[in-house]
Amino acid sequence: MDKKTNTFSNKTAKARGWIQAAATLLTNIHLPNLCKGKIYQGNAKTVCVPGLNCYSCPAAAGACPIGAFQAVVGSSKFQFSYYITGFFILLGVTLGRFICGFLCPFGWFQDLLHKIPGKKFSTAKLKPFRYLKYLILIVFVILLPMLVTNTIGMGDPFFCKYICPQGVLEGAIPLSLSSPAIRSALGSLFSFKCLILITVIVLSILFYRPFCKWICPLGAIYSLFNKISLLSIKVEDDKCIGCQQCTKACKMDVNVLKTPDHPECIRCGACMKACPKAAIHYQFMGKACKSSDTHVKNNTNKNKGDF
Amino acid sequence: MKAKKKLSTVLALCITLLLTACAGKETTEPESTPNAAATADTAQAADGADAKLDDLYQQENQLFADHKDVWDKVFGMMNKSSADPNGNYADYLAGTVTSNKDSFTDEELQTLNEDIETIRGIEEQIAALENSTASDDTAATGSSSDTASPFSNFSGTDYDGNTADGSLFAQNAVTVVNFWFTGCKPCVAELSKLNELNETLKSMGGEVIGINTETFDGNEDAIKEAKAVLESQGAGYRNFSIDSASDTGRYASDIMAFPTTILVDRNGNIVGDPLLGGIDNQDNYDALMKQIQAVADADSADK
What is the CATH number of the domain that holds A288? Predict the structure, then answer.
């Protein structure tokens, strides 16, 4: 039992709520802007944040990667957004869907909603819906903005415009609350997107992270890197007793023993907390982040060797 | 574990309420800022003046209440659009009464005229008070008042290098100012319609001008792109590159949604609320036309 509480991975998993809160705060650091209704437009806005966080949130510190991708693909000046694609690959290869579990503000929002007490339902039988997010990625984020254009080659950011509930929550609602002119411009599209947001909120209370599982194109991109990402999850065979507690604990419906690096795994660490033998832990580049003591020791040893 | 759940629920609630609280604060903020800027002394003096003003307005309202029946009749005859905010209110009332003289009995007319004379006296006091507070405000802040139009010291260069200043607005009964940027699809979508509007307005003594926020500070590349887009959409009205640090530039930087279209009168003042969204939408076009008509009517009434 001592060993279990000592584990570095376990500590990380336990502090997840706080890490999510901190990440959300850092992603939306310009809080006073929320009351002023003015979007921060400084130089940091040219850089993307890792999670799904609307550019039009007045407090946002950076741009939304999905929004930026569509804006560049849909602009008449560029054919494809190489910079954002590179950004996806960099984050995907290093962290994978760890971003969904720890850094994404909309993921945290759904986590909080799911904590509202009441009857909860399993999504195990709804697995086919998982593929919907890849369809949304290809159609709404890539193809439509690229192909449906006006006479001078400008496309709409289809995902942002017609689907994204984070845009309504962080952008449209705070902006319209503080500006009567924006309020007067709200129409049927806003009502439609509010309906999507409300649906996602209700589903998030009943199911665990429905948006991440079925809709999110950003999660879809990161999921492609989950199997090869430097940060991964390791089940130690010699410690595992095959009790399946981890799979039972997994809210993303992943069979942890069989496929610890499944595309759906958001690295939340619920399996680590559930494991009675402390057999599951995070690893980075194949090196275990097992116990904080050995981790530090390993590092110093290695450093000594280097010098 | 239960405590943790409760804590999370409370946290979630707090965040939701925080958003709502922000909105509530917003409505009170603009009113409190001018006072906060003034020094304590002037604030107190202003409070005294405000109380006096309130009292004077109360006196007027009392008159209207005392002879409610006949005044209600007068108010029913008033034409909203011909109201002139700068003249003495009593003149305006007298005008309405005299032009509808036949509708009143002699007795009623006498009551009305007496009241109007009392109101004239009150109005003069109000005007004197308002003038003194206004000058106090400027003295206290040491800069132009908040109501100064962002176009009063307008200066811009069109894409062919011709300069324009605030006199641009004086030449038009109404100037439609469209804020846009080149990468904005809905902005580009309404350019041809804005060109049509410009043609329509010429006969009314009006004009459409465009301000592209990417072309600020004479950005050559952006101007070239904007020019190409304007040409592709057949938009021939004037577009200006302005200085981002100017009053107009700062006003444009505060715009959070594009396209935004505003109306400016002959004096360089913004009239009405900004219109958000393209006028290629018929509802938006109708709403804008109605506002334009109102500004043009007010302009011809002034002359």
Answer: 3.30.70.20
Q: What is the pLDDT along chain B (303 residues), one digit of tens a residue?
A: 456 666 566 655 555 555 454 444 333 333 333 444 344 444 455 566 777 778 888 888 888 888 888 888 877 777 655 555 566 778 878 887 887 788 888 888 888 888 888 888 888 887 777 766 655 544 444 344 446 788 888 888 889 888 888 888 999 999 999 999 998 889 999 999 999 999 999 888 899 999 999 999 988 889 998 999 999 999 999 999 999 889 999 999 888 889 999 999 988 899 888 899 899 989 899 989 999 988 888 888 876
- Residues in A lying within 8 Å of B, measured between beta carbons: 17, 34-39, 41, 56, 71, 74-75, 77, 112-113, 115-117, 150-152, 154-156, 173-175, 177-182, 184-185
CATH of domain B155-302: 3.40.30.10
H/E stretch holding B270 reads strand B270-276
- Quickly list DSSP for B111-180: HHHHHHHHHHHHHHHHHHHHHHHHHHHHHHHSS--TT--TTTT-EEEETTS-EEETHHHHT-SEEEEEEE
Do residue A237 and residue A218 come from a single domain? no
List C-alpha distances in Å: B265 to A248, A300, B177, B211, B262. Answer: 69, 73, 11, 17, 10
Token pair for residue A301? 């040893």
Same domain assignment for residues A219 and A246: no
Distance CA(A81)–CA(A63), nearest Å, equals 14
Nearest-CA distance A77 → chain B (Å): 9
Contacts of A77 in chain B (CB under 8 A): 183
DSSP 8-state class, residue B234 = T
Domain ranges of chain B: 46-141, 155-302
**Size of the A and B interface in Cβ pairs below 8 Å:** 75
Assess if residue A78 is contained within a domain. Answer: yes
Residue B32 CA to residue A259 CA, distance in Å, equals: 60
> Which residue in chain A has the smallest CA separation from B23?
A177
Q: For B173, what's the count of Cα atoms within 13 Å in the CB-facing half-sphere?
A: 20
**Predicted complex ipTM:** 0.77
Query: What is the rounded distance in angstroms from the CA atom of residue A66 to the CA atom of residue A48?
Result: 9
Phi, psi for B119 (deg, rounded to 5): -60, -35
Choose among A155, A220, A175, A166: nearest CA to A193.
A166
Structural domain boundaries enclosing A95: 2-224
d(CA B55, CA B70): 23
Cα→Cα distances B109→A208, B65, B90, B105, Å: 76, 16, 14, 6
In this structure, the answer to whether residues A113 and A254 fall within a common structural domain is no
Instruction: Report how far residue A262's alpha carbon sits from residue A217's, in angstroms, rounded to the nearest whole number.
Output: 17
Mark whether A107 and A54 lie in a shared domain: yes
As a whole number of angstroms, the distance between CA A212 and CA A229 comes to 19
